[in-house]
Design brief:
With about 250 residues, the chain is of the alpha/beta class. About 45% of the residues lie in helices and about 15% in strands. The protein contains ten helices and ten strands. It has helices at about 30-45, 75-85, 100-110, 135-140, 145-155, 160-165, 175-190, 190-200, 205-225, 230-240, and strands spanning about 5-10, 15-20, 50-55, 60, 90-95, 95-100, 110-115, 120, 155-160, 170. The protein has a six-stranded mixed β-sheet, sandwiched between helices. Helix 1 (about 30-45) runs parallel beside helix 2. The termini are far apart.
Length: about 250
């Protein structure tokens, strides 16, 4: 089978990890999560890598959980911990849509940049679920009032709004790679020791949330996925109809 995550470094100090599962819009299947964890470990062990860029093929960065075959919430929690604990900065490069669990990936990254075609939504409440595990990486980033609105309503919003509320570091109306160039240049010029220690400081709040609440919210996520309301919400999504609770 073709890999779902491609790793490439071209001597520039930046390793690019590309999510490449277009059949399910880069959804968080058990296989994609496992491959991404393996690729991150490889980048961490590579002395020539100063930073990691996480990007995607297709028009979706990540659609969230693979609803036909979701990964174990504990494995997803482990992935988020590994991103935040990686001794090298992780930069999200987004040119498409981000939904649900994909926003958890975005929140775990140290820097996040997006182009004009990107859009965002915490879709869990419309499926009978809650953004439980991902709350640990997104809530430390977000404006509290915006978090209450978007996590509850599942409304979609654009890159400008994502930057305003703290989900993105920067957005551009033009080419995202041009906008990222000075960011990556700055990371290339930093020493490995300095990057590791500085990342440990700036990511401390997110890592503390993962350590403090990880077990409880992973259990909540598993319980909700197994509930009758979630089964109805997910079935309704596949059948392209409103779930039974919509009035």
């Amino acid at each position: 089978m073709a890999p779902l995550v491609h790793a490439a470094r071209q001597g520039t100090g930046i390793t690019t990890l590309t999510l490449d599962s277009p059949a399910n819009r880069n959804a968080l299947s058990a296989r994609l999560v496992a491959e991404l964890r393996e690729a991150l470990a490889g980048a961490a062990a590579d002395p020539g890598t100063r930073a990691v860029v996480l990007t995607h093929t297709g028009n979706t960065f990540c659609a969230g959980a693979d609803l036909k075959s979701p990964c174990d919430p504990a494995d997803f929690l482990a992935l988020l911990r590994e991103i935040t604990a990686l001794p090298k900065p992780v930069v999200a490069r987004v040119t498409g849509h981000v939904r649900a669990g994909g926003l958890g990936l975005l929140g775990a990254c140290d820097i996040a940049a997006a182009g004009p075609q990107s859009s965002y939504a915490f879709t869990e409440t419309h499926l009978g679920l809650a953004p439980a595990v991902i709350s640990m990486t997104v809530l430390p980033r977000l404006d509290p009032r915006a978090a209450s609105r978007y996590l509850l309503t599942a409304e979609a919003f654009d890159a400008a709004e994502a930057a305003r509320i703290g989900l993105l570091t920067l957005h551009t109306a033009d080419d995202v790679d041009t906008a990222l160039a000075p960011v990556l240049d700055g990371l290339r010029k930093a020493s490995p020791q300095a990057l590791a220690e500085t990342k440990a400081m700036v990511a401390a709040g997110v890592r503390e949330a993962l350590d403090r609440d990880g077990a409880r919210l992973t259990e909540l996520s598993a319980r909700l996925f197994a509930s009758a309301e979630a089964r109805e919400g997910i079935t309704a999504r596949f059948e392209r109809r409103d779930p039974s609770w919509v009035r």
